[in-house]
């Protein structure tokens, strides 16, 4: 295995690299057995993986020793068979359910076909879920095998789960094992271990360096527990101590520990505690009760004929639907909220319990399940937090649900603009300086007291992640009680990555909460206050990295999460996460928002899928998210490094998606030459914006395709589906569902498309090449400027500040309902040009949202400018919400509104 310690993607590829390494070992073993290779090459490959293999239960010491023995005795054939068996076991995870996979002497009969397929989707669930437990101890390594055997003897047939122990003997090894092995879901710490690993291997450094845990005076088990929880907060950590366990259990630092045991006086109790801890995460209260409900003989006399399925399976005309979906779907349907079920509108039973477990998993205080999408979650949050006349600073390019939420509540949006990426016809995220200017402008107008909410999208559709903690800190320094709503529809999975978590609302809120409790926070604030003086200018405040007064801050953070977009939930499954010290003051409004927006007939299967998605992410999320990142990195590399594909397509790096002034670290991209973990970590921790690696903007304009055209080609001709397009790009999104096979399919398709382009250019002659060049120029060079929000018309600014741009969007929206105060003006024509030149001003009556780019380029009450009209005219998309081509732009007539108001 080559040593690439300088590659910053090495850590992010450690999981897939393990399978690749064992396939390489199998290849080398086969070559040696067939006299086409050398034994030394095989030994070197095995030696390279040995340190990391100690962090996994399988293949384990016995199988590795057997492999080493066969090599040492020149049993090339036996070594090749065993290497292949191990490799297949890792590929299929067969060892989790087949005890014979662990047996050194278990050999497959020559006539038996090797089982290299994972369990089928239709197999009954007879297997017990498998996991691994890390034991960190100070015993000599020679004693570990016996200790592991003692642990295995504690297994009982009635145990709900089965686990294998992994033993390590140092702080460094514990960190590495937890990071490298996603199957570890529990950790048992015994005091007295050293800091340094007994290995000095490059693979260890490639893991430890990114995680930043350095040697220090505190090498205690409690420090290790806290470090492990920072990497993977979902882990259960247990502590064994032969000291004063009563004092340890009462130490605030022991909050990271689930339970403290006195040494190993109760090994069975420890075993049971481990199983109980996993059971606490495995439990899905609503789904479990729904399964029980489906098994009961229920008589239904409510308004849901499809429940129990009799109307389906007894009908010759729709029985095929029942056969397609299966009986359980209908047995589990009901409109009842009793008999073991619960009400989503006012949960008191298993839904309430499921939401509490989701809050634990996602680091929130409260969670609301939502069954009609994050559009509804956003409107619920906006309705509950804003009242008529309140001001909200909001990204103009946010999802339309936020804009409609402002309409519903009567709040006044203060639109702020994201940085443009004109070349790709998309926007990024809103710079912090822009947000601070908005807050300072409101303060100068004496309107800061009316500002209630900062509403931003994180991450954006295209992958821009804010430095969430810094944004909240600096805003709280100006307004200590500001509420934050972070729309994380696209990045709910980020909670389960140690690198992405700090850039999530709940992750940053937890870090900020910890800082607020630290006495040093007050000292830092007081020092900055002294440095800035009693009355600093706006310029000074804009230039400084502001520190809030911890004594004044009210930490109020909300996050919406499209669970179905990044986790295993059914479409429209969403969660609204709350971490708000003053939630009790808005709790009644939240319940009203639920009553307003939630269906009184929520889908049972959706609720169950949210319950199950939480379970999966708590027990498997770390590995699943790492896999999604690995898939994305492989796609980036395969596209950008391919000799043919890279001539026509490329995945944009951070340097092309984020302007340099927002990448203070100088970070360019994971795969850029010379990139190191130093710059990557600095970017993750400090840069104003960071690019989610799982979101890949694939430029297709250089291949002569606009985004919509290329999306259609992939879907119709190659069975590849994707979400978003821009004028000259499409967005590829890796997720927890993707596999290496998906990557291979995508690359094969791109190669085929490229060959088709080259054949067409070669066969078509100069005329074809000129047409292709013109098409590329049109898509990549002749791009329209992106329009910013102009301003609200004065008739919608009666309650606004003199110098601040907020406006009454609600009144403007409902003026569109009155035909007598509205008019239509054709987009293309002399009248539109005359109005832009001579007036009167054209005022939009509604939202106009072209797809792509998918954000409102006009909102109710907005004065239309030349740049907006030019952008609309250059659009070549088929779908524009709020615009009727046959009638033209729908406008409000301010004079007619004023005249009607005087009557």
Automatic annotation (TrEMBL):
> Any idea which GO molecular function terms this record carries?
transaminase activity
Key words of the record: Aminotransferase, Transferase
Q: Name one Pfam family in it.
A: OKR_DC_1
Q: Which residues form the Orn/Lys/Arg decarboxylases family 1 pyridoxal-P attachment site domain?
A: 284-509, 557-732
Family annotation (SUPFAM superfamilies): Ornithine decarboxylase C-terminal domain (SSF55904), PLP-dependent transferases (SSF53383)
Keyword Cell division tagged = no
Q: Which cofactor does it need?
A: pyridoxal 5'-phosphate
What name goes with this protein?
Decarboxylase
Q: Which organism is it from?
A: Rhizobium setariae
Q: What is the lineage of its organism?
A: Bacteria, Pseudomonadati, Pseudomonadota, Alphaproteobacteria, Hyphomicrobiales
């Amino acid at each position: 295995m080559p040593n690439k310690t300088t590659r910053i993607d090495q850590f992010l590829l450690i999981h897939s690299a393990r399978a690749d390494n064992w396939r390489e070992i199998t290849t080398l073993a086969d070559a040696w057995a067939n006299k086409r290779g050398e034994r030394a090459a095989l030994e070197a490959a095995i030696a390279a993986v040995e340190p990391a293999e100690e962090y996994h239960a399988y293949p384990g010491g016995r199988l590795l020793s057997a492999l080493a023995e066969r090599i040492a005795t020149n049993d090339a054939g036996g070594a090749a068979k065993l290497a292949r068996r191990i490799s297949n076991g890792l590929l299929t995870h067969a060892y989790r359910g087949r005890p014979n996979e662990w047996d050194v002497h278990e050999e497959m009969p020559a006539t038996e076909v090797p089982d290299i397929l994972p369990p089928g989707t239709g197999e009954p669930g007879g297997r017990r879920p498998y996991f691994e437990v890390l034991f960190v101890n100070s015993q000599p390594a020679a004693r570990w095998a016996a200790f592991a055997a003692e642990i295995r003897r504690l297994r009982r047939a009635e145990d709900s789960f089965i686990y294998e122990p992994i033993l390590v003997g140092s702080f460094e090894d514990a960190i590495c094992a937890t990071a490298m092995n996603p199957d570890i879901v529990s950790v048992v710490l015994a005091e007295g271990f050293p800091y340094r690993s007994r290995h000095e291997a490059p693979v260890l450094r490639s893991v430890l360096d990114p995680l930043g845990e350095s040697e220090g005076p505190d090498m205690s088990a409690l420090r290790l527990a806290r470090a492990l929880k920072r990497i993977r907060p979902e882990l259960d950590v247990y502590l064994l101590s032969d000291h004063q366990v009563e004092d340890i259990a009462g130490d605030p630092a022991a909050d990271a520990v689930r339970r403290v045991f006195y040494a190993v006086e109760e090994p069975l109790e420890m075993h049971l505690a481990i199983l109980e801890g996993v059971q606490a995460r495995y439990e899905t209260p609503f789904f479990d009760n729904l399964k029980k409900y489906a098994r009961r003989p229920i008589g239904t006399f409510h308004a849901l004929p499809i429940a129990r399925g009799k109307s389906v399976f007894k009908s010759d005309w729709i029985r095929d639907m029942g056969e397609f979906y299966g009986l359980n779907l209908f047995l589990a349907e009901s409109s009842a909220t009793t008999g073991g079920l619960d009400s989503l509108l006012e949960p008191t039973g298993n839904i309430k319990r499921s939401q509490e477990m989701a809050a634990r998993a996602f680091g929130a205080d409260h969670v609301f399940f939502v069954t009609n999408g994050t559009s509804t979650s956003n409107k619920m949050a906006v309705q509950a937090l804003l009242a008529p006349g309140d001001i909200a600073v909001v990204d103009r390019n946010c999802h339309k649900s936020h804009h409609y939420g402002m309409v519903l509540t009567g709040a006044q949006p203060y639109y702020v603009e994201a940085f443009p990426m004109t070349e790709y016809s998309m926007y990024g995220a809103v710079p912090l300086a822009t947000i601070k200017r908005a807050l300072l402008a409101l303060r100068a107008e004496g309107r800061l007291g009316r500002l209630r909410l900062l509403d931003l999208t994180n991450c954006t559709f295209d992958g821009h992640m804010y430095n969430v903690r810094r944004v909240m800190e600096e805003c709280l320094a100006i307004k200590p009680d500001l509420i934050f709503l972070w729309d994380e529809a696209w990045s709910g999975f980020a909670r389960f990555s140690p690198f992405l978590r700090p850039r999530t609302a709940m992750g940053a809120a937890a870090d900020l909460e910890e800082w607020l409790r630290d006495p040093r926070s007050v000292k830092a604030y007081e020092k900055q206050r002294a440095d800035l003086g009693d009355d600093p200018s706006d310029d000074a405040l804009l230039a400084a990295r502001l520190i809030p007064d911890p004594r004044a801050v009210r930490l109020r953070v909300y996050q919406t999460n499209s669970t179905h977009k990044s986790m295993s939930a059914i479409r429209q499954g969403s969660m609204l996460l709350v971490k708000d010290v003053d939630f009790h003051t808005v709790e009644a409004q939240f319940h009203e928002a639920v009553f307003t927006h939630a269906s009184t007939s929520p889908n049972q299967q959706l609720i169950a899928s949210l319950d199950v998605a939480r379970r999966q992410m708590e027990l498997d999320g770390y590995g699943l998210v790492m896999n999604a990142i690995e898939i994305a990195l492989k796609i980036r590399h395969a596209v950008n490094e391919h000799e043919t594909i890279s001539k026509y397509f490329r995945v944009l790096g951070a340097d092309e998606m984020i302007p340099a002034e927002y990448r203070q670290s100088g970070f360019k991209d994971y795969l850029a030459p010379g990139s190191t973990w130093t710059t990557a970590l600095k970017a993750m921790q400090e840069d104003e914006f960071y690019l989610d690696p799982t979101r890949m903007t694939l430029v297709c304009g250089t291949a002569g395709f606009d985004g919509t055209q290329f999306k259609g080609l992939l879907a119709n001709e190659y069975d590849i589906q994707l979400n978003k397009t821009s004028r000259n790009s499409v967005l590829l999104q890796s997720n927890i569902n993707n596999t290496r096979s998906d990557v291979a399919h995508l690359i094969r398709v791109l190669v085929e498309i490229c060959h088709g382009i080259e054949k067409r250019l070669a066969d078509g002659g100069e005329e074809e090449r000129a047409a292709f060049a013109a098409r590329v120029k049109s898509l990549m060079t002749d791009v329209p400027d992106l329009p910013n929000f102009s301003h609200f018309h004065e008739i919608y600014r009666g309650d606004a500040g003199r110098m601040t741009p907020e406006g009454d969007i609600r009144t403007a929206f409902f003026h569109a309902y009155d035909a007598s105060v509205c008019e239509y003006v054709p987009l293309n024509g002399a009248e539109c040009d005359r109005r832009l030149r001579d007036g009167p001003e054209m005022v939009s009556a509604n939202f106009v949202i072209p797809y792509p780019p998918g954000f409102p380029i006009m909102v109710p009450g907005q004065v239309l400018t030349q740049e907006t009209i030019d952008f609309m005219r250059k659009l070549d998309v088929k779908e524009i919400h709020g615009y009727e081509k046959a009638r033209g732009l729908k406008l409000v007539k301010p004079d007619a509104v004023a005249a009607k108001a005087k009557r």
